[in-house]
Amino acid sequence: MSVILPRRGFLKLSAAIGCSAAASPLLTPVSLASAPGERRLIVIILRGGMDGLDVLRPMGDRDFASHRPNLAASGRDGLRLTEFHGMHAALKDLRPLWADGDLAFVQATSTPYRDKRSHFDGQDLLEAGTIDLAPMGRRTGWLNRMLPHLPGAEERTAFALGREDMLLLTGETPVSNWSPEVDLTLSSQGLRLLELMMQSDPEMAASMAEAIALAGSDGDSVTFEMSEDAMMDEMMADAKEARKGKTHLKIADFAAEQLRGESRIASFSVGGWDTHANQQRALNGPLERLSEVILRLKDQLGARVWDQTSVLCMTEFGRTVRENGTKGTDHGTGGTMIMAGGAIRGGRIYGEWPGLAEADLYQRRDVMPTSDVRAWAAWAMHDSFGLPKSVFENQVFAGLDMGSSPNLLL
Where is the secretion signal located (predicted)? Predict the structure, then answer.
């Protein structure tokens, strides 16, 4: 049974965990929607700020190695894609997709979000598809805003419910949600903290009451008496078990099952991308999980449906061009988008490369964005569902200039 708190409530509970809580493996709801036609669209949010320079390595840029003496050296194990670009070795299992034209990348792309580099604001802007954040409670997601323009779009029957939809598919048009197992453990101190918060936060009170009821309804007791150290140990154990139990594959299996049926749109997240330290090791896990998800989707969808499918993997921002003192990277700006699927015109790199000379960097620290990630999403939806360009520029992503078609889909 899933237990999902509103992100505002979760922030209050997880402050001690640090900024990587934004990419918790426990927050993995799946949103689904029906649509007419045979095209399928899967949007995967990579929570935590994926380092696009490590995933898609510009080995042909003469400044790459000087900015990253340790990380660039690890590129010896990378996979050459073009004369200029290499792919991180942890994505080696995706190499056949590249060769078959089912894998592509967009370099130096970003949302309009700039300067503050907050995970939660960055993720909200990515999923809202807007320039600025709307007040809490008025935010809607760009996938949801597209749905009313699709004739015959319907809500897909829900399976197991958490309380929060992904913002990406949140809005006036009904969609369905499902999430894998999550158990609930609270210390007595944590319970007291919740009680204090509930006094002034009715939304949190209602959410927590439902969370406790849901957590107990599958036969597992809800634990309250536990030290704070033990609670943290339990949380880390839950996260370890989630990875060990291949939760990401359960999500891929469920999404594929629905997309083989009535559903045409699915969205979920893959976390673990906040690589402030020891990135050479820390990035392997999330890249391997993402690779497994994509290959599992291909396998479970089957050739006929895979050939009609576009997978868009998007992150809230990129990371700094220079590695830091702990052999990691910090929050940045321009990043990389990964696209997969039989409907994608793959085997190529999209977008303009800005260069890594200091004068070419954004604020002399980050990759300079040369495109708006929303435009790539808009063209993928335009080509998938045949809606007019004006719908995306005026309503789905109000004020966006999509430019000319990049011919993303076959």
Answer: 1-23
